[in-house]
Amino acid sequence: MAATTVARVRRPSRSVVRTWPAAHRDDAFTPRDGLVAEVALGDSDADEQRFVQREGPFEEYERVVSTRGHEVVDTTTYRLTVPWFGWLFRLPVRSSLKHRSVGHGAQPGWAPPDRLTPHHVMVLGLLAAVSLSSAFVNTLFTQTVNFAASDFGISEQGQSIAGVIVRCGIVFALPFTVLADRLGRRRMIVILAWAAPLLAFTGAFAPNFWVLTATQTVARPLGIALDLLIGVALAEEMPKNSRAYAISVLAMASGLGAGVAVMALPLADLGPNGWRFVYVLSLVWLVAALDVSRRLTETPRFEHIVEAHTVGKVHLDGRRFAIIGSVAFLANFFVAPASFFQNRYLDDIRGYSGAGIAAFTLATATPASIGFVVGGRLADTAGRRRVLSISIPLATLGLVGSFAVGGWAMWAFAFMGGLVAGMAYPAFSVYRTELFPTGRRGQAGGFIAALALVGGSIGIVLAGQMLNAGWSYAATMATLATAQVITAAVVFITYPETAHRTLEEINPEDA
Known about the structure:
By secondary structure, this protein is of the alpha+beta class. The protein is built from 21 helices and 5 strands.
């Protein structure tokens, strides 16, 4: 088998020597064509053959095969730089190079369908790093609102009003998405990567509930704008068969960022003001802001429209905007209240403490991140529309079930709902960037996010009123879930298929 070494981040390359029986000489001397495509240097009939990377993700790569008596010695040396997440890819990369494919170019099951370059890997790692920050900021208020409300003596109705106010803060995100189409993705991503966690941090010093709400009314939309522009930049950077896969990687990073907020919830059990410590953790993400400021580059597609002097000269497709916006509105009519009231349900109905809520969320949502990888891969291979049409109803069934039963069944329903919802997420998100031209991609994403928040706000207010009127959580969520049925129908009937097509094929005005 081929020799490999562990992928290192910002460290020198390593080499490991493996031996093969001489009978396998022909196979050993054949160039690899899987995760990396090799090209041979020198005489193919020599007793020693050197191979280097023709296409692949490695910054440095060399394989040397030599015949020594009755053995063939195969030595592979490489260096793969994946910002922040190199540890996650060490074992898969090593395994893929050991069990190499020859001659057909197939990628490993854990890798994207396209063979990436070192630039793709660098961009994906950096954007995933700031996804941690955006997800933490976006999750912070939702996870802590119950504890802050208890500290300040706020009712469920007050919490739902605060949730709507925070969501109305989307108006603060829209200018950044519009400016990203004028001034560039990189510039806005860097600004937001600093601003979002800093503003979220100010919530730690709120003297009352409504000041806390005000701070997060600004911070959370900036986190949303950051998330949107990360998706835009990634869509413009990645190859045509790997956009949904890349979104799934961002989704996993976002899940980790949100998970940090959830794992910090036991701090709320330290006392009435314990929830404030969760907001202090926002400062951790300034490290990601510093890294992206230093290493992220502008997307080539935005540079192209600047060079072509077409910035601000293209128009949105009204029909595409209408169908994507309607799906975002309807989906969040159910998803937002289900997420917003979950902690209150676990606290009031099931009697969970802050630590118990954290354990439930981590146990049911973290393993469900497998759905991101599976869904991203399926969306890139089988098609986005098919994945959404099947996964949306199943995810809704699981999430509604988690509000209807207790015990292990509640955990099982929540796990199933999260897993299948994770499968839908890459396809759902990638449509927001694929169906709009480069000059309007950020703006379209911003207004679609606004429609999603309007739908979510209406759902939260309605859910709060139903709960205050004596409705059960199960009946409330089942009623709101009817919007998901409509969502699945709209997707199946109206969405175009965009898998295996370049952005220029989908948007001819960009060609």
